[in-house]
Design goal:
The structure holds two protein chains of two kinds.
Chain A: H1 2-6, H2 9-28, E1 47-49, E2 54-57, E3 68-71, E4 79-84, H3 87-90, H4 98-108, E5 113-117, H5 125-136, E6 142-147, H6 152-165, H7 178-195, H8 198-204, H9 206-216, H10 219-242, E7 247-251, E8 254-258, E9 262-266, H11 270-277, E10 282-286, H12 287-292, H13 309-338
Parallel strand pairs in A: 4-5, 4-6, 6-7, 7-10
Antiparallel strand pairs in A: 1-2, 2-3, 8-9
Helix pairs in contact in A: 2-7, 4-13, 5-10
Chain B: H1 6-21, H2 24-40, H3 47-64, H4 71-78, H5 80-91, H6 99-121, H7 127-162, H8 180-196, H9 205-213, H10 226-234, H11 241-272, H12 281-312, H13 330-334, H14 339-353, H15 360-378, H16 382-400, H17 402-408, H18 415-437, H19 441-450, H20 462-483, H21 497-512
Helix pairs in contact in B: 1-2, 2-9, 3-5, 3-6, 3-7, 3-8, 3-9, 4-6, 5-6, 6-7, 7-8, 9-10, 11-12, 11-20, 11-21, 12-18, 12-19, 12-20, 14-15, 15-16, 16-17, 16-18
The chains are: A alpha/beta, B mainly alpha.
Chain lengths: 339, 526
Amino acid sequence: MKMKKWFTPAFLFAVLLLGLGELGARLFFAADISGRFEYGYSPDAGFDERRDGTVKLFRAGGRRFHPQSFQRQRPAGTFRVFVIGDSVPRGPSFKGAYPWLLGKELQQHQVQAESVNMALPGYGARRCQVVLRKALELQPSLVILHVNDSNKYEDEREFRRSQEFKTWHPRNWPMKVFIFRRLYEAKVEKVFWRLVPEQIRLKFAASDADAQVAASSDPEEVRARVQLARETTAASVALAHAHGVPLLLITQCRVWPDGDRSFYFEDHGLDALGRSLAGERVYHLSMKEVFSGLPDGRSYFSDSGHLKQSGHLLLARALYQVAVIEVILSCHSERSEAE
Amino acid sequence: MSFITWQYLVFLPLVLVLYWQLPGRWRLVLLLVASYFFYACWDVRFLALVLATTVIDYLCALSIEGKQTGAIRVLILALLPAAWLGGCAFFLPASGINLLIVTAAGALGLAFFAGHEIIRRLVSEKRPRLFLILSVGFCLGILGFFKYFGFFLDSAHNLLTFLGLQPNRVLLQIILPVGISFYTFQSLGYVIDVYRGHSPACTSLLTFATYDAFFPQMVAGPIERGKHLIPQLEQTAVFNPVYLQDGLRLILVGFFKKVFVADNCAILANYVFAPQTPLNGYWAVLGVVAFAFQIYGDFSGYTDIARGSAKLLGIDLAENFRFPYFTRNPSDFWGRWHISLSTWFRDYLYIPLGGNRGAKWETVRNLAVTMLLAGLWHGANWIFVLWGAYHGLLLILYRVVPALRSLGDEKSASFCRGVLAMALMWAFTLAGWAIFRSANLHQLGLWLAALGHWQINISLPWVSSSLWLLLHIAPLLLLQILTWKYRDETNLGRLPWPVRGVVYALMLLLIVSSTEHDTEFIYFQF
């Protein structure tokens, strides 16, 4: 009675509707919003393991996976490749990226294969490792880890945001409610990202971008982040090794103009890192080596780091010829030895 | 402290709980402390200006009414702002206040004291008028220095340079105190009302200081009249659940307008009116429509939150917006847009100038002067003066061209003529917003030029962006349709309660979906 006196029936009805909405969101949309506010550090966000044994990759929790599905239990005789990395392996489109093209390449060479693109834009070594942990549970024959050095700051910023979200701070309270979180997710990813052109989105977040640039340019911080990224990559290699899964490191390179017509490739020391980590069941492919030998190597790049579809195709072929075939052969020989 | 911060969401309930627990005058003490704290969260130094305005207008209003205040008391009060600055300099060395600033504030206080004492000792019928001049002079002097000094200095420098002279550039960086135009005008309006005998002078400094600095409306209005707000502050209200119900409803609608409508429309408006943005006709129109809803959602949203916060304290603030985009003529627009400011200019400037009582040319002159000053009130920039001139021109044309008057007349127009008049007025309003939003005349020129180029290919898709805009305008328009017949933008009261419940729930969901970016209220800069 007292409640009714203080609040109008309309207000109480609104609260009831929101309560029902919250219940519905918890029951039906829990997977969709999993890990949104862990900013990429959630172990399971974007992976939906269904009762029928299918694993679906979907956009959730800030992980913009290309939607794909595969059986949790790897089919007998299938060579399963997972590609983990950032926007470079994610590609200009799902079928225009080297993970898909690699799968095609393998199938053309009569290898029964499935290649899954688990790359996510803006993901650096730390968040890639979180995806790797999950991927290793899903019976890969080979994991390709695309090693880049351009997302160190994003990793750090998102880690801080995820930690901040776990605090008691009132500004995080609304997003602890599932219905709010679900709507927020839908608004940002399905409305904001799709309707507002990227150029405007970037401009709108100009202050944030400025802060990033400022934070990125401090030499001490940059050095610390580079060191952390390298240690994390080494830890990822050890992790794959511990699971007995072969790992292939692709080290990123960048292409820069050198005078009016010329250009040069730069690997920022990643090739050396890749070589130092290569060893038993760990393979290495240098993008610089793939592209720098070509007279028109620059033409495969859409900007300094991202590849055009032709570049992805070239990389997929190189992967097959240089490395994957080696992995397949070694797998076969190991199996024969075991038999 | 801004309304759309978590700090305010903690601050307000805390003030409310204490307010309704305290007896009588202690509530005023609480409100005053809370208001000063609220303001000091922006910049603790500028509280000295609030104190100065309060002290000057409090003392002058009393003196206008012939009430005696002891010289010692006047002196102490006049030195209060300097004492505050001195305290800041001593306890907050990082505030940047130095001995020179404290001395200047002290000298100003002494000057006011001297002026006050001289007028007080005069045996003349003009004494009330002189006190009014003293109050208006000091308050407008403070406003003029902090808001317009740099502007006029720059303009004079540019003019002299244009004339071929080589003036020395005087560099003076003056920070604009938040809300200075609002509280100065509110305080001035009170003194003028006392002078005219429309309102009694407030004898309690505590009450008057609370009136001057009342936190819900201090920094961006509504500009309250003393005779409306002071009696409400003086009475000891008993808590009524209606305060809670109405207050929460107003706050919800305010947040919806600000966070969902304004901040999302701002994404497109900020892009279109950013320097170097390539524009064609589509983008130019899209940008100005986005800004029209941004500024409306922003300012009316602020007002609704202010009214809601005050209502929770049992206090009614004036209505500031009433469907301003559904008007048929410029006169009606100003009766619905920023009502507290337009009525302020009407009562304290336009009517004293003669209003529309004289010859036609006098009315034209009065309208022109009023609107130019109303434009200048918004900011120290020629673009605002141009905006004021533009609206002045619209008002003058509406008054002197019979065909326009007939078209915009609400009573005689048919439905079709009414729609035509509304569309025409909407287009004129948009053109006005293009002036208002442009950073300078060059940008305004680019915007106008874009209207002549509809074929220029700009790679950005304007159709999807229009859809984005529509998605954020449509719920607001729906809300306006629902509340139209009650003549109150926030009054959902007579709708069936289940419909209201759904509307409240949807509004809350839409607000939360847009909490990504914190943007400040536009009118704080004025």
